[in-house]
């Protein structure tokens, strides 16, 4: 079975993330969305909440599973016998950071391949942090995150 992991913080999932997940699910037999548990960064949503939001917006894609991991991504992948990492690339500015991570993961496990998907142009400006910033100052986040989670993001930001 051809399995890929799509790792990230997903705090919260955006339409850009969802676009990559949908496209990857057409290329691979199974896509595991891997949410990094980062003890140094509390985040807006807890890991369980992020998981629930991603499960909700991917519920119609049967070959997508959502899990969380701590520590190194390569260890998470080894435990599940996964060799492919999918990443979205928005702009040249993403490249350097992604290139460094891809090479580090390769150094840690030479069997691992990182594959990049170009983000759809209409999401090229989008990130979880910009969504949070817009929401924080009362801007409209419709079209930036999946419709099913707009209210929850706004509520969480202002409670
Ligand atoms: O959405 P993000 O925050 O850009 O995702 C970053 C992520 C989770 C993909 C990256 O930080 C990661 O893989 N962290 C796990 C730790 C690890 O494996 N580090 C080695 C590669 S530098």
Automatic annotation (TrEMBL):
Sites marked Transition state stabilizer: 17
Q: Does the keyword Zinc apply?
A: no
Q: Which cofactor does the UniProt annotation name?
A: Mg(2+)
Mind naming one GO cellular-component term on file for this protein?
A: cytoplasm
Q: Which UniProt keywords apply?
A: ATP-binding, Coenzyme A biosynthesis, Cytoplasm, Magnesium, Nucleotide-binding, Nucleotidyltransferase, Transferase
EC number(s) reported in the record: 2.7.7.3
GO biological process: one example: coenzyme A biosynthetic process
Positions binding ATP in this chain are 9-10, 17, 88-90, 98, 123-129
- Please give the superkingdom of this protein's source: Bacteria
For molecular function, the Gene Ontology terms on record are: ATP binding; pantetheine-phosphate adenylyltransferase activity
Bilayer-crossing residues are none
Which InterPro entries does the record cross-reference, listed alphabetically?
Answer: Cyt_trans-like, PPAT, Rossmann-like_a/b/a_fold
Subunit structure of this chain's protein: Homohexamer.
Q: Which PANTHER family match?
A: PHOSPHOPANTETHEINE ADENYLYLTRANSFERASE
Q: Which NCBIfam families does UniProt cross-reference here?
A: coaD_prev_kdtB, cyt_tran_rel
Please name the HAMAP family in this protein's record.
PPAT_bact (MF_00151)
Say which family it is in: Belongs to the bacterial CoaD family.
Please explain the role this protein plays, according to its UniProt record: Reversibly transfers an adenylyl group from ATP to 4'-phosphopantetheine, yielding dephospho-CoA (dPCoA) and pyrophosphate.
Protein name, UniProt field: Phosphopantetheine adenylyltransferase
Q: Which organism is it from?
A: Clostridium liquoris
